[in-house]
Write a structure and sequence with these properties.
With about 650 residues, the protein is α/β, with parallel strands linked by helices. It contains 22 helices and 25 strands. The protein is globular.
Amino acid sequence: MAKDSINWMAGGPQGSGVDTAANVFGKACGYGGLHVFGRREYHSNIKGLHSYFHLRLSKKEILANINDVDLLAAFDAETVVRHIGEVVSEGGIIIDSQHLNTKVLGIPTLPPEFRAQLQKFMQENNVGETLADWLEHAKKLNIQVFSVPYMSLLNQIGQKLGVTQISKITRMINVLTVGVSFALFRYDRALAEKAVRAVFAEKAKIADMNVIALNQAYDYAESMFKDEFKHRLETTAVKEERIFITGNQAVAMGKVLGGCRVQTYYPITPAADESEYLEAHEILKTSEENEAIIVVQTEDEIAAVNAASGAALAGARAATSTSGPGFSLMAEGLSWAGNSEIPLVITYYQRGAPATGLPTRNGQADLQFVLHAGHGEFPRIVLASGDIRECFYDAAKAFNLAEKYQLPVIHLLDKAMANCSQTYPVFPYHGFKIDRGQLLNEKNLEGKDYKRFVFTETGVSPRVALGTRRGVHWYTGDEHNESGHISEEPLTRRLMVEKRMKKLELIDKEMSIEDKLAFFGNQDAENIVVSWGSPKGAIIESLHLLKDDSLNVGFIQLRMLSPFPVEIVRSALTDKKRIIDVEDNYCGQLGDLIKEKTGIAPNYFILKYTGRPMTTTEVYEALKLILTDHAPKRQVLMYGS
């Protein structure tokens, strides 16, 4: 693969400040005009087990991670043994010198199955029992090792700060690793200082302390390691204003743009970060006056979905946010919203399943569940974002669709998108317009006999907010007549079912091709990749690499999964030699959906269900094997610790 980026990884025990270090590092690189793509991996326990953050940096836009690590900043011994195989020749490892005598097999947080893998590796490669032995093995592979006496540096920092109990400042080891890293890269330390102050913006004293720590580490590495490290991070001039955000934050901001004024939730990973971000920014400052968004943490997900429906009935743009187990509890409320034609928005973050599964890991195995959840037949829109930019605009658009067509809209994402972070030019938003559909007010109802569910050609009936004068109507979980009263008459039942379901035809007719899917690469190529969600970035980058190899392939990213764009997809896939389904699940659920709707089945599958997202490296290698006739029909990807 072409070398056009630098890859930095920080790892350590959960709760040791890995995320903070990565945020400082990413912001500093962004300030220098670099593009950043970050991936966060963490255990479901609160503290202690291994977590890491992988940041890829480049002067050009990047869309995914790759396998290689150029510099590994290890907070502990476990990080080294878990990721040493990912560090490239001429790459580097930063390690606290006090960990060198650690006996690798004695690391208490290693699971037994991983410990068995380490034993096998040590036997096959004749590696000794201590971390120092492992690092000697790394040196034989042309990897540089930078041993740093963090406790000595903390003592010096303590003297400058007047702190005698070093235990009070040991958490700053994370910033020390950042300082050492930037010194090795010869990166502008002023930008690193700016990033530290931005991350600790609300704690000026803490920011000052961490700036001192950053410079102490930078000075140490600069004097001790001089120009030993080959790789450099250089700043580049940028005219545009950029942001560095996560998928959760992009969804939250998109909801604000879309006019959301009520958000309900029950805490669950990885969805809760979005609601917590909204809670931290509930007061919306506008040019004329301040507005507010109400964020309600309910007692459970059943209450969350029904409270959101209630707010939508009262006239607010309302949403709820959840993950798999929570959505399971919402199924009855979803059906109620479908029957009552409520403009409800549900943001659904997939994670490793079934049951509790992998609560902080990635997954794409909930597609069929989302398409069919709830009892009975009722229309829904399912939108699947493929990157952070789409997260922002889809989150806003979902409210327009929900109100225009009066049905539930499920915005489907996955953990990889929720917890990845990326630099972007500030998203243009002035062109977005709120469309409330056929929402009537008191004046519209003068002299009319209002029927909430009146039969129409399109299936969409004019609606009013609860409490609107002259707009008396009824809602019930039962089947009903045009006024909302319970009715079990056969003809009424038939007409009501058909009224609701024909909205799908209207949506398919009115929505643009761009809303339904996106084409990348050569649309006329005999080889076509089909996918959805977070694999998008890795696939697009792979297409560029395959083009350099003179291998021709196109890519269809499905964006609207319900109603499914049958005719467009059938036309695009007819007579293709190879149809390659790329997904983060076992069954190839998108492939099954395509076969169900079009009669055309993929003939190759690239799948991953380890709980870790796909990288450009592994997708490129898997596609190349297929295109050169060296692959089985089904490949399962395994990269990631």
